[in-house]
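Input set for joint prediction.
Command: fold jointly, output tokens.
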Amino acid sequence: MNALPWTLYTAFAGALLVLFTGARSAALARGIALATAVTGLVLALFAAASFVPGPGMQTLVDIPWVESLGIHYHLAADGISLTLVVLTGLAATAGVLFSWNIEERAGEFFALYLALIGGVYGVFLSADAFLFFVFYEIAIVPKYFLIANWGSTRREYGAMKLALYSFAGSALVLAGLLWTYAAGGAHGFALGELARAASTLPRGEVIVIFALVFFGFATLAGLFPLHTWAPTGHVAAPTAASMLLAGVVMKLGAYGCLRVALPLFPEGFLYWQPIIGWLAVIGIVYAGLIALVQDDFKFVIGYSSVSHMGFVMLGLAAANARAVSGAVLQMFSHGVIAGLLFAVVGRMVYDRTHTRQLADLQRMPLHRLLPFAAVTFVLAGIASMGLPGFSGFPAELTILVGTWASSRVWALVAAFGVLVAAAFTLRAIQLAFFGSTGDSAPAEHGADAHPLAPISLPEKLGAGLLLATSVLIGLKPDLLLDWINPALQSPLFQAVIRKGTP
Amino acid sequence: MNSLYADLFHAAAPETVLVVSALLVLGFDLVVGRHRTLAQRLVLATFLGGLGVLAALAFDLAVGATGPVFGGALVLDPLAVAVRGGVLILVLLTLGVASAAPVSRQPAEFVALILFATVGFLQMAAAQQLLLGFLALELASLSLYVLAGYDKARPESAEAALKYFLLGAVSAAFLLFGFSLLYGLTGSIAFPEISHALAYQPMSPLLAVALVMVLVAFGFKAAAAPFHLWAPDAYQGAPTASAALIASASKLAGFALFWRLLWSGLGTVAGQFTYHQSYPGWLTIVALLSAASMLLGNFAALAQHNVRRLLAYSAIAHAGALLLGLIGAGQSGPGPLFYYAATYGVATAGAFGVLAVLERHGPAQELTDLAGLYKRSPLLAGCLFIFVLSLAGIPPLAGFFGKFAVFASALQLGGVASPAGWLALLAIALSAVALYYYLLILKQALVARPTAAATPVKVPAVAALTLIVAAALIVLLGLFPSVLLSLV
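tokens >
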């Protein structure tokens, strides 16, 4: 367990190292970035091996930081954080593998990339709300530069929109936390201490504060109608950045809701529960229907991310032990699958064909030109639709079963969302990869004139890593659920789970 | 009486050192500089000036917090020592900026004027008496007016100086008028006695007039809306080093002086304004100034395409946050206010430092002049990245913790039931607006491609050292905020 803090130290150290060495050679920068990311993953798995599941967060480091305000540098972990730390390690490693072709300003690219990863590790391991917030904001700035500099379609617009949405959301969170701290007379920013301070406040104030903190975090989680940054941001981002955005950054928002908003303000949650639940199911169906009519391949995946994150938010809204554990499982599962989908669209297809328009892709026999990409995408699509054998199945099933106990209407509407997801995924597979047979149509798009580069080894490794993870969790979800369920027994979570369950 | 003068001389050792070194700078230039180029004379003058500032810093720390001096005209409390130290470090950074900026004429006089202004700043930090405070403020201001107009060949510089001087003179008149009313009402010019005398007086129209007069002058010095009109022109037209000094050390010293005046002198008529009860006092006016500055500064900055004007409007917005810190300082002490003002000064001085170096290779006015900075000089781009993000309040840089501490102190006054709480929430909301224009600067510097005419920028060693020190200060103070907070 004591290895966990080193995940974030290695990420930041790697970022600095790569910044100063990257100017010399892009290959060196790639090597260092990959080494850093793999080290993070190994550290997380090593820590997981010695992890004993239990309620409450197990302290890793606890040093007074700003004593006059009672702020501590307090890192801790429970099964939920561990799950997400492992996910971050996986996504980081795969992301580096899929950005092997970055040549321009590679040092800066990987430095920003690793700084983002470091911030994400930090958020998942923080047990002090101030520290949590610091890492949360550290993760925002690199996204802007990654997208604005190395992105594609309307990248400056997408980057700015994403940065402003994230920052506005975090401003709401900051306002809520400071309000609780000051009005509740808290002596520090430890989560338990803030929960105690919040419990002394009148109900009306708690309801407002909960809304600030929850919707602040939910902005980053892509909750309808605060999700509009997500598709444009995902589409504009370079492949590795959209893998991280969908894979772990959106999870930051959901994790913030789960770790901070819900346990600190159970009364406020009770008031907002129906609204959150409805917003989540609307998001699932609405984003799914939008994805069904997109012309741009990447927009399909972008909206599908919003739709799948809706399941996470629905699990949180249902607020019983099963639904919440399903939500955490879905965070993990979607992180892996969305990363894979973006990798296929952004790296394997777009970097070779230079188009993402489904109409253009339809004219190319991609299943022949890029068979590996086609197989990967079909498998990832199946996983994304939630078919058994892949991680999406246990995750969405757990959420739906859990939600059924809280509200049958939500569960039914969300189940309809699963059908919509199947529809848009199949449509994307059909149009992009199996649009033409390649026999009859003359290869006007230049399959012969400009043969597409074969899928490289790093891409195969990255895809294999993510697919294997999805299958492993699909076959044996208990690996993660055995970590997650005990964590939900902690008093902070029980406060909201008891109240939230009808 | 003799021991009193000895005490005064002891307490004013940093000021004495500065005056002597200013004279030395002038004398050396007269003797040695005649046959040398402007650039060489500038290096010599800034080097000597820098040594003087370092010596003053050593004296400041050696004297330490000895308490009231000279019958209470000055007070050397921990805040005074800390602010003097902060001012001296900011002046050192400004000298580093000055060493890089191109000079038009008489570099020794420029440096000497900076040192004279610094004497004024140091006295402002410690003054505990109306007259001494006014003298210190005017000594600093008059030096700054001349510094702002130092490039007299450039019409913009002359315009900046004239605007700054005319508005400054009017505000000085307001301040003096307010002070004379305060003296008339209380019969004293010493802050503690004024406070004592006011405690037994009801709020009278005359007192209200006096308070408004004082705050108008304060609003001008702090560049708070609606008294901010000089700031964009001064920042744009003044020589870069002068602008850096106006934006950094002058702000810190000004807030220290007015913190002392308002809380230890006029604290008994601060008034109170919470949701439940309110009675009149100067807090209401400061809160209005704060809200106006934050709104105007942040929204006007959105429309700027000149970097310096953008920094000026950002300074106005930051003045609003500092005023909020001033309100909060009544209960939580001056720690957050000092931290905010000092770290803001470092970041702004650093940003102007980057502009100063750029100016050697062409104009550094429009946002687009920064295009492709990452290619022209990675060092400058990296430092600008840190300074601007600190201004935007991104952790773990110092600007974030300054905001956090100030907002926390304001919210602790009465939660959200008090206007200070509303102001804190407003400030938090506006920080998201501010990120937009700060990112516009960084977009040019780090994302936009360089123009065809742009050449690589060579950073002189002294300027490079200055910028690296400033950037390191921003990062380290952000990671270890207790270092500064525990000083006061």
